[in-house]
Amino acid sequence: MKRMGMIFRAKANKALDRAEDPRETLDYSYQKQLELLQKVRRGVADVATSRKRLELQLNQLQQQSAKLEDQGRKALALGREDLAREALSRKAALQQQVTDLETQHATLQGEEEKLTLAAQRLQAKVDAFRTKKETIKATYTAAQAQTRIGEAFSGISEEMGDVGLAIQRAEDKTAQMQARAGAIDELLASGALDDQSGMHKDDIQAELDRLSGGTDVELELQRMKAELAGGSPQQALEGGTGQGQSQQQPQDTPRFDKQ
Prior knowledge:
This protein has 259 residues and is mainly alpha-helical.
């Protein structure tokens, strides 16, 4: 089972490697970095919003503290020490809240500065990655095009490889058939392989047939000459030079009879 699992993972990894396009992977990574940068920026905006809210609360508390101090002075001027004491007590409570808010404000301001710096650094990294990504994509595209052109010219591409194998197989089969046909002809000529159709003859019979054929042609030629000269076909078959002389004698005899 472990071996089967390893084989399956290896084949799956190979299939994924073939399907993976580095340009798409780079674009996906760049998109993820942009999303992270956007989150950091939103974090900076949230911290800045909280800081601004604290600043508004501090302003309100400071205004109330100033108002209570003014009320204490007026009460003391009117001889109402009790009212002045109450106003100063409330001012002291507000001052404690102001101190707490100022501490929170300083903390938020520090966090905001850190996040702002982190966002700036991340922005620089994203910009650098974008430049490098486009460079790698352009280089990969150029290399891919060059590889395809090289494969097309050299004939090592998958399509050209299939065509080359088909041509090679056709040439091998043609050469095999030619060799087989030549071997059969040699066997028939040597008599080692009989011709079952009866069309093949040995060399002696072939020579006899050739001589016989030549004799028939000569006899036919003599017969045609005799017919043209006015002789009979039987005289032409008697052949030879004497046949020509016998054809002249019948022509001379009628001449003497007429005289």
